[in-house]
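Kindly draft a sequence, keeping tokens residue-aligned:
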Amino acid sequence: MRDTTETIFYSGVGPLAALLLGVGLIPLREQTPASSFTFAFLVLTIVAGELGGGWAAAATALTSALSLDFFLVRPYLRLTIYAKEDIIAFVGMTACGLVAAAFAARRGEGIRAQRQLALLRSVLGRLDQAVPLESRVAAAVGECLDRLPVAGIRVRDMDDRVIARVGRTTSTRSTLRLDLDLLQAEPALSLPLDGALLPLAMEGHQVGWLELWGAGARSGLDTRRTLAAVARAIAAALAASPRAVGV
């Protein structure tokens, strides 16, 4: 799954590649109109969008337009344009690049939604297996550890017994308590590195705790909504098996 680190990486690499592409095309600038170079920059923008999402594509598109103007359009090495056809090429490059960025952003959102749904289906499948509760919950939270930006997860019942533990956790209980509604609604919320505590409830009755440790990256709203759905599924499993044995 594409995370914040990848987006930041390609948002830097894409513009740098656009500058290098402009430099690399300098030997050809006297042999062909500037509009001929726009296709190369468009391909680069599309690739940046596929790898890094909409922000990477937008940054690459804008840098590509500037690189085209600065290196390949007369007067060279200046951000000015004299010829009418070069103005058209510059405007067209900018517009097409931003359109490609918009489509990359929408496609990225669709891919993320599909992956979140696939994760939820997998978690529900794990919790529905005919194995002990500890094994089911451990498998379910293990799926989340592999696919979401979390460093560790621990599940406890109301007797403070550990039902499952995966990833990096601490021996003491987390003190920061988060409400599931806040987890789903807050637009800018990062899971703390030292852990957060989520109550697990079923039909108004608390059945346990879900502890989450962040991985240092900002978690998107879709990720946190998925975690809330996973928490509710685990709560249902705990409520159906009240005699879980700690590990």
Q: What stands out?
A: The mean pLDDT is 81. The radius of gyration is 25 Å. The beta strands are 150-157, 162-167, 196-202, 205-214. The CA atoms of residues 70 and 79 lie 5 Å apart.
